[in-house]
Design brief:
The chain is of the alpha/beta class. Among the domains are: 107 residues; 163 residues, Leucine-rich repeat, LRR (right-handed beta-alpha superhelix) (Alpha-Beta Horseshoe), CATH 3.80.10.10. 24% of the residues lie in helices and 18% in strands. The structure holds 2-acetamido-2-deoxy-beta-D-glucopyranose (NAG) (9 copies). The site of one 2-acetamido-2-deoxy-beta-D-glucopyranose has 4 residues, from loops.
Length: 426
């Protein structure tokens, strides 16, 4: 009750000072706050564990709605309830590390997450907690994690590590004993292994291994992941051809392979990925011509093929390109568009084709290769072309002006000479 009295006083002052204005009155403390003084229903051991983890326990962690931004949730067992989930975020700096003894009493947790809790991490979680977890997430927290730490979480369905360096042997070690995994995110983790060749294929539907230093090829065994909906391998050091077997992943909706060193053509077999929504192959060394089958993909919204080595005439019409939210093909110097089918107002960032299907001129500046995602009326391109025209007519006007001035000068000299001669004769 103590901290409430000065607060109330302040509120009163505020109300008094703002009576002339029409602001709505600030909410007054509601009478519902009284139940908080009732004893917590949480297992006392877990209550003190929360305390040791720096979580204030003045409000019952099992109350509904949960205090501290949903930091906790509990089961409904009696006489004491137990914690099911714990989300530690924005940890106070008073907490110097994660007390292992506290973690040991939390083995009823199925979900544990850290965000912005830069603490030293324990080498391993207590094994009972390791096995009870179905969901583990760690974002910009715990100075670093080891592959071993993660690999012991055998019962996970959901694993997400974001912005935390992971040391040790790599992705395969981490996931090989997680048969229930549904969603795997290891992003910005400094992992430098190859991609696993063996997966537990049944449930995995989301893989995000973006922004690491992963090496090697996409293994064809990836095609066994029949539930896979999204695959993000952006910003790694992967290379090689796309395996034809990628086409077996018929549930795939999102593929991001940008910023790697993949090469070769887009395989024709990809045409069977009819659910595709998002395809990003940008900033690789893909080559060959663009396949026509993309225009038959009804759900496609995002197609980014920029900064590759594609060549030839773009085989898409304006209605397809306008249907997409994003369509990017810039940065492919041998790619061009058919002027009689596509308007320059689409600003595709590539040159127009000559009649042999080759680019007529060097493509416009990189700065103009944004496309598709702006529903602009193309005014800017009109302006650009106008300014180009102006630039073109500039020198010719100058030449004309100089010519007129010169001829005037010559004419007047001749006139004066003639005049003086006529005068001299007389
Ligand atoms: C708190 O968690 C519940 C159930 O998990 C969820 O429905 C609710 O939206 C969450 N509230 C906030 C503010 O995150
Ligand atoms: C943690 O801090 C961030 C930024 O200060 C804030 O946006 C977020 O809501 C905080 N989270 C919680 C659970 O308090
Ligand atoms: C692992 O999870 C399953 C359900 O997904 C559960 O039945 C099993 O008891 C869990 N194992 C452990 C050791 O908690
Ligand atoms: C990232 O990995 C490299 C070796 O692959 C290592 O030298 C470096 O210290 C790691 N960085 C961090 C932040 O752990
Ligand atoms: C893939 O990962 C990158 C980097 O983390 C991110 O910017 C991008 O949005 C992701 N792509 C998809 C489709 O989620
Ligand atoms: C898939 O791509 C869509 C469209 O670009 C995006 O809105 C969505 O967040 C992506 N989903 C996943 C799981 O990456
Ligand atoms: C594509 O690049 C590969 C080398 O990465 C080369 O062998 C092949 O001939 C190229 N294909 C075309 C059509 O340029
Ligand atoms: C554009 O291409 C699609 C697919 O090739 C086709 O179904 C559609 O009729 C074409 N639209 C126009 C206006 O030519
Ligand atoms: C451009 O399209 C027109 C009309 O469909 C066609 O006659 C012409 O051959 C095409 N040009 C190229 C280079 O494909």
């Amino acid at each position: 009750m103590k901290p409430k009295t000065p607060l109330l006083f302040l509120l009163l002052l505020l109300l008094l000072s703002t009576t002339t204005t029409t602001t709505t009155p600030p909410p007054t403390p509601s009478p519902i706050s009284s139940p908080t003084s009732s004893p917590s229903t949480l297992d006392p051991k877990q209550l003190s564990a929360l305390h040791a983890l720096g979580l204030s326990t003045t409000l019952d962690p099992c109350s509904n709605p949960s205090p501290h931004n949903n930091a906790t949730s509990c089961d409904s067992s009696r006489p004491f309830r137990h914690l099911l989930s714990l989300h530690l975020s924005n940890c106070s700096s008073d907490l110097s590390d994660l007390p292992i003894s506290a973690l040991r009493s939390l083995s009823t947790l199925t979900s544990l997450s850290f965000s912005n809790c830069p603490l030293p991490s324990p080498r391993l979680l207590p094994s009972s907690l390791s096995l009870s977890l179905h969901s583990f997430s760690c974002s910009s927290s715990l100075h670093h994690l080891s592959s071993l730490f993660l690999s012991r979480l055998h019962n996970l369905s959901y694993l997400s590590v974001l912005n935390v360096p992971i040391s040790g042997s790599g992705v395969a070690i981490i996931t090989s004993h997680m048969p229930h995994l549904i969603s795997l995110t290891l992003s910005h983790t400094n992992l430098s292994s190859i991609l696993p060749h063996h997966w537990h294929p049944l449930h995995l539907s989301h893989i995000d291994l973006s922004s690491n230093q992963l090496k090697g090829h996409i293994p064809s065994s990836l095609s066994l992941l029949s539930s896979l909906k999204s695959l993000n391998l952006t910003s790694n050091s992967l290379h090689g051809l796309l395996p034809d077997s990628l086409a077996d992943l018929i549930s795939l909706r999102n593929i991001s392979l940008s910023h790697n060193s993949f090469s070769g053509p887009i395989p024709d077999s990809l045409s069977s990925l009819s659910s595709l929504v998002h395809l990003d192959l940008s900033s690789n060394q893909f080559n060959g011509t663009l396949p026509t089958f993309f225009s038959a993909m009804k759900n496609l919204k995002y197609l980014n093929l920029e900064n590759n080595n594609f060549h030839g005439v773009i085989p898409y019409n304006a209605s397809f390109i306008k249907r997409l939210q994003v369509f990017k093909v810039g940065g492919n110097s041998n790619l061009c568009y058919n002027h009689s089918l596509l308007s320059s107002k689409l600003e595709l960032g590539i040159a127009r084709c000559d009649r042999y299907g080759l680019p007529v001129s060097p493509p416009p500046d990189k700065s103009s290769d944004y496309s598709g995602d702006d529903e602009d009326d193309g005014g800017s391109s009109e302006d650009r072309r106008k300014s180009h025209g102006g630039h073109h007519s500039g020198p010719s006007k100058l030449v004309l002006g100089v010519a007129i001035a010169l001829s005037c000068l010559v004419f007047s000299v001749v006139f004066i000479v003639c005049l003086s001669k006529v005068c001299g004769c007389r």
